[in-house]
Structures are given as C-alpha cells and as structure tokens.
From TrEMBL:
Keyword ATP-binding: no
Domain (PH) ranges: 497-604
Coiled coil stretches, renumbered: none
Region (Disordered): 676-734
Domain Ras-GAP: 279-443
PROSITE patterns: C2 (PS50004), PH_DOMAIN (PS50003), RAS_GTPASE_ACTIV_1 (PS00509), RAS_GTPASE_ACTIV_2 (PS50018), ZF_BTK (PS51113)
Protein name (Swiss-Prot/TrEMBL): Ras GTPase-activating protein 4
The entry's keywords: GTPase activation, Metal-binding, Repeat, Zinc, Zinc-finger
GO molecular function: GTPase activator activity; phospholipid binding; zinc ion binding
Residue stretches making up the C2 domain: 1-127, 138-267
Species for this entry: Ovis ammon polii
GO annotation, biological process: cellular response to calcium ion; intracellular signal transduction; negative regulation of Ras protein signal transduction
Length: 734
C-alpha cells in the first residue's frame, strides 16, 4: 500500500502586469528614473517579457516559455507533477526576462497543500500576484528537542537546537551563514515554528523536524497592483492498495472488452452513459492506460468504435462528439511517442511538403496504431457500405489523425514539445491557416468544408492533391496483416527505445580538476531502460556511461559548485561497488527537470537507492555544502526520487490506474445501480443462466461486489490522524 500525490497544473494567462522594460533599460545604462516614476505609472508606456517559474516547497520544477513585449501574456501550458505526499505548497513566480541583467521577479501566487485539498475538483480562476521579499523567501526544516524540566518553584522549557536542512541560499555564492534566535511568547520574528506547548507539557518531551515559515506580520500593498495570474491547479491524493486487491476489477473489465459488442451487460457502454462530459477525458485516459497495460488497447478501442457506430445514423457526425471513443483515441495517439517524433518532422514544412512527408511515413507508425486504424477503417466500411459513403472510412481515420492530433500540434507546437517557445503572432497566424488546411484535406475536401473556408480557394489544387495523397497514405497504413503486426511489435520489443535523448555537457574531470563551467564537454546523451549512454553526435556509435541498475540517485547540484543552476548529478556504483558521481549540465531549468524526472522514473525500482545526498561537490578535503571532511559520509540533504514530471510515454502504473477507475466507479455507483434496476426489469431479465464457459449474465452485479470489496479494503488501510491545534508559540529566528 502506498500514498501517491500528483498536481495537475495549467498556467493559463496573466493580466495587468507592471511594465519592467523601461525601468530595467534605464537601470542597466545607469540612467536615474524620473522622480516619482513607479512601476504602476509605467505600465501604459512600457512592456515586460514575462514567464513563470513553478516551485514546489521552493524547489523549481517548471519554467514556461517567455511571452515577449506584453503585459497580458497567454501561456496555456499544462503539466502534471508526481510529488511526495508530504509537500507543503506550490508557488507560481511571474518573472520578467532581461537580457542586460538578472531577471526581475514581478510577483507570485502561493497555494498551500491545505488550500488545494479544500478544492477536490481543483482550484481554478484568477489570483492576484503578491510582492516577493527575498528576506521572506524562507525554506527548510529545523531539528529541535523540546523538554519541560520540573523545578522547585516553576517549570522551565528547555529547547535544544540540533540541526537544519534544505535552507534557502542567501549569499551570492549560493550558501548561507545560519544562526538561530529563540523567543517564547514574544513578538513574531522573521522565521518561526509553531509548537503545541500544552501537548508538550503532557508529554514532557518532544523532538522532531519542524518546517520553517515566513513572517506574516509585515504590511502588504493593496492587492492587484502587480496584476493577476489565471491558474488551474488540482491536487490528487490516492491511497493505492496492493495489486491483488484490484485483480477482480481488472479481470472483470478485461473480460467485458474481450467479449466485445456481444457482451450481455455492455459494462463499458454503461460506464460511458454514467460519466459526465467534464470528466470523460480523464476516465478515457485512465481506461486506456489500464488496457494498454493488459495488452488490450486495440480491443478496447475497437469496442468503442462499434458502440459509437451502432448509435450513429448520419455519416457526417461520426466521431465528431466528445464521446468516450473520441477521447480515448485522442489519448491513444498522444501515448505513442514514435508518432509524436514523426509528427515533429512533418510539421516543419508547409501543406504540400507536410502531406508528402506524411504519405511516406507509413512504416514509421507503430504497429499497434496501424492495427487500431485498420480495425476502425474496417468497422466503418461495414457500417456504411454504400458507394456514396466510400469516403466515410477515410474520414473516420482522419477525424482522429488530422482533427485531434496533427492539427492541434500545428496550432500549438510548444504544447506538443515541438518547439521550445511559443510562436510569435505572425507565425501563429500561419500555423492557424496551415492547421485549417490540414483539416480540410482530412475532411476529403467536401463541398461543405469548402463553403465554410472560402479563403482556401487559392489552395484548392494543393488540397485536392493532398486528398489523394492522404487516401493513399491511409490505404497503406491500414494494410497490415496480423502476422506483420506481431513481427513489428516483436522487433520493437527487442530494441531499447530511448526514454530521453539530447545534448548535455559532462564534467570531463569527474570532480578531480578545477570546478568551472569550462570543464564541461558537450556530448549527445541517450537514456534507455538499460543504460545512460553518450556519443559525439546523434548518429555516432554510443558508449555506455552508467548502467541503469547501478544508479543510486539523480539530484540537482547547488549553483555555487559550478557557477550554474542547471547542473545535475547521477550517483552510481562502479564495478567494484564504490559510489561515483557524474556531473551533467543542461541548458535550462526545464531540460534539467526533464532529465532528472526521466532518470528517476527508470530507476525507481533499483535496489540501494540513497535516502540522502550532497548537493555540493567534494573540493579539496571537504564537501562544499556541509563542510564534512569524509568523502564517504552520509549526504546532508534528502533525495527527491519521487518528484517527477508526467510524460505521455511514462511507464504504466497499473495499480494507480485501477485505483482511479475504482474511484470513478464509486462516484457513479448510484447511476449504475439505477441502470441495473432498469435492466433487471427489462427484456434481458428473462434470459436464463449461461452455460459452462459462457459469460455470466449479470456483470453489473459482479461489479457492485467488487466495489464493495475494495471499499472494505480501503476502510481497513491505516490512516494518519491530523495534528492538534497549537495554543502557544515558540519562535525561532534564523
């Protein structure tokens, strides 16, 4: 049993931000700003170059793209982060990028874990940016021992300050010189810990780690003067039971998928009917992941195709609604990393070149995707066999391939990881026209689509040629036999596809020489499920740097060690069992966190993972972070192996997907019971019991039993008790 926490984050847009460029340019040129000139007065005459940094417990994990020359930026970027259940807060810093000096902090929005937990459907809306005072940017924990010592006249409170960890760097070199002041029932100081003194009196002694909190007593300027940030943030906490608890649910769902459209209860169909539109995408994604893990993704999608075809009478409305089939297929296409990589090549050209490249990419498409499109094509042709509907099977495929995959990637290449930055206004307009053109080709250039997009008349020859190319591409795409599919899947399984690859800088002296940024050499790295390898170029022969089974931790390196905040370390054991460290430098914070996330995910089941590490380096005769003189001493900071970014090609977590399906089914149980009552009194109720080897006649009754068993298992799982409220204050100033 394990507790899992994840944050779904969407950074939407900002508005009414203060102008920073005018003042910053004057500052860089040593020009004094006019008397009385303040940010609020400059916002109509200047601009800013805003981007966002997301920190979890003061640890930067996300950086958005910069939106240039605007006070109302739109980002629209989405992330999902897996975190330890013990995190305290997530903060969004709006920054102004400056080429001449250090980037400025415009303001921040901070959401505590308690705030997010109070919004089960997620926090969504505008939040005012607040000032950021560097002196109040407090982080870390302090280890205290508190005792009540009886005396002849009165009791005394003894406080032993033992150690601290994860403190914020306050010096320019990335370090701090911390000290502690203790006050009892005095005025609030800069950094404080709240202690329940009444409980301490009863226990006589209390010891543990206490989180440092910033001072809240300073006066604040009026809210809104720094602008606002629109966010969507949802916290999900799950208690995941052992795999055996979910087996009955998984087996029941798999049996229904294997039975297909002929199943007696059509459990998948009932799940769709009782699922609201707002959560259909989430349910579709979870079901798809569950069946991917069971090797039944194609069968699951085929069942959804049949269900939608059975209730569709008009060919022109096929797969155009937000049905479970549409949402599941959309998630399926995003899950296949190879398709994304192929699209990255085809989307760099204009319509003619794009379609030509697409038509040549048949064999680059994963076998399971080709097999799924084959099933879709065949089912639609069976449902609409007349000559007047000869284009309908092609349109069914393009409704997913073009409308829900290629066109969205063209419109927002940054969100599909095809570009590092958002496109400028002129490029965005070009991409919009290109996406519309692709959709028109995908619609097989029907008169209706031509009437809607009259501006495309000059493109008609290219569109007509594109329709022929696309039909030829789809014909080849779906022309795959079962044997070919198995051979392709077997060939792919023999390879170790890269989890992540790209250029990194490796420290050539491995910590033995001078520790400067010039000591790094640029190489092309490739991470698979077997090893971290490198080569001089992407096409060169690769050499193994570290076997994945030998990695013990992947963590950041503090900025002062190499003069860069984008350096990570991979701690591993060599052939003799001794710990070694490889230092790798990334080009930005996003690349750093993506590499750390990828390394942590592929090593999560390694034996001997470290619980602590040194964020500094061993220089001379001591560690730069904690000044310990023994190189083999335990680390002075906790490892963060559970902090990872979710990607489309993440390894599947079967137990978590089953838990999410269970939780959803529990929420719609009342609606399912009503459906069960209707079925029990309808014509199906007259059917007799099934014979040996046949499917049981009442899958819903089985489902209710499975849900009841899982509810009981969750009730039996241990649960922590909330902490008591404090009555008096013990304060420390660091």
């Amino acid at each position: 049993m394990a507790k899992r926490s994840s944050l779904s984050i969407r950074i939407v847009e900002g508005k009414n931000l203060p102008a920073k460029d005018i003042l910053e340019t004057a500052k860089a040129l040593n020009i004094e700003a006019p008397q009385g000139a303040r940010l609020g007065q400059q916002q109509h005459t200047g601009s800013s170059d805003p981007y966002c940094i997301v920190k979890v417990d003061n640890e930067p994990i996300i950086r958005t793209a910069t939106v240039w020359k605007t006070l109302c930026p739109f980002w629209g970027e989405e992330y999902e982060v897996h975190l330890p259940p013990t995190f305290h807060s997530v903060a969004f810093y709006v920054m102004d990028e400056d080429a001449l000096s250090r980037d400025d902090v415009i303001g921040k929005v901070c959401l505590t874990r308690d705030t997010l937990a109070a919004h089960p459907k997620g926090f969504s809306g505008w939040a005012h940016l607040t000032e950021v005072d560097p002196d109040e940017e407090v982080q870390g924990e302090i280890h205290l021992r508190l005792e009540v010592v009886p005396g002849t006249r009165a009791c005394r409170l003894r406080c032993s300050v033992l150690e601290a960890r994860d403190l914020a760097p306050k010096d320019r070199n990335g370090a701090s010189d911390p000290f502690v002041r203790v006050r009892y029932n005095g005025r609030t100081q800069e950094t404080s810990v709240v202690v329940n003194v009444q409980r301490l009196w009863a226990a006589q002694r209390e010891e543990g780690w206490f989180r440092l909190q910033p001072d809240q007593s300073k006066s604040r300027r009026e809210e809104g003067h720094l602008g606002s940030l629109q966010l969507e943030v949802r916290l999900r906490d799950e208690t995941v039971l052992p795999s055996s608890c979910y087996q009955p649910l998984v087996q029941l769902l798999c049996r229904e998928v294997k039975l297909g459209h002929q199943g007696p209860g059509q459990l998948i169909s009932l799940i769709e009917e009782t699922t609201s539109t707002e959560c259909r995408q989430e349910v579709a994604t979870t079901l798809l992941k569950l069946f991917l893990g069971q090797g039944l993704a194609k069968d699951f999608l085929d069942l959804l195709f049949q269900l939608e075809l059975s209730r569709t009478c008009e060919a022109n409305t096929l797969f155009r609604s937000n049905s479970l089939a549409s949402k599941s297929m959309e998630s399926f296409l995003k899950t296949e990393a190879e398709v994304l990589e192929q699209s990255a090549q085809t989307l760099r050209a204009h319509l003619g070149a794009l379609l030509s490249a697409l038509s040549r990419s048949v064999r680059a498409c994963p076998a399971v995707v080709r097999a799924t499109f084959r099933q879709l094509f065949r089912r639609v042709r069976e449902r609409f066999p007349s000559a007047q509907d000869e284009n309908v099977p092609f349109i069914a495929v393009t409704s997913f391939l073009c409308l829900r995959f290629v066109s969205p990637a063209i419109l927002a290449p940054k969100l599909f990881h095809l570009r590092e930055r958002h496109a400028d206004a002129r490029t965005s307009r070009t991409l919009l026209l290109l996406a519309k053109a692709v959709q028109n080709v995908g619609n097989m250039d029907t008169p209706a689509s031509r009437a809607k997009e009259t501006w495309m008349e000059p493109l008609q020859p290219t569109v007509r040629q594109g329709v022929a190319q696309l039909k030829d591409f789809i014909t080849k795409l779906v022309d795959i036999q079962e044997k070919d599919e198995l051979d392709l899947q077997r060939a792919l399984s023999l390879q170790a596809p890269p989890v992540k690859e790209g250029p990194l800088f490796i420290h050539r002296t491995k910590g033995k020489g001078p520790l400067t940024s010039s000591s790094f050499k640029k190489l092309h790295f490739s991470l698979t499920t077997e090893a971290l390898s490198f080569a001089k170029t992407p096409s060169s022969k690769k050499s193994t740097l570290i076997k994945l089974a030998n990695i013990r931790a992947a963590e950041k390196v503090e900025e002062k060690s190499f003069g860069s905040s984008h350096v990570m370390q991979a701690i591993y054991t060599d052939d003799s069992g001794r710990l070694q460290t490889a230092y790798l430098q990334c080009k930005c914070v996003n690349e750093l966190n993506q590499w750390l996330s990828a390394l942590r995910k592929v090593c999560i089941n390694n034996t001997g993972l470290l619980g602590s590490y040194h964020p500094g380096v061993f220089r001379g005769d001591k560690w730069s972070c904690c000044h310990q003189r023994d190189k083999t001493d335990l680390g002075c900071n906790k490892t963060r192996s559970w902090v990872t970014l979710q990607e489309w090609n993440d390894p599947l977590d079967h137990d978590l997907e089953a838990q999410l399906i269970y939780r959803h089914l529990l929420g719609v149980e009342a609606a399912l019971r009503e459906k069960h009552r209707q079925l029990s009194t309808g014509p199906e109720a007259s059917r007799g019991p099934t014979g040996p080897g046949e499917a049981p006649g009442d899958p819903l009754a089985e489902l209710f039993q499975v849900l009841g068993d899982l509810q009981e298992a969750h009730r039996s799982s241990p649960a922590g008790s909330p902490p008591s409220e404090p009555s008096r204050i013990l304060e420390l100033q660091t």
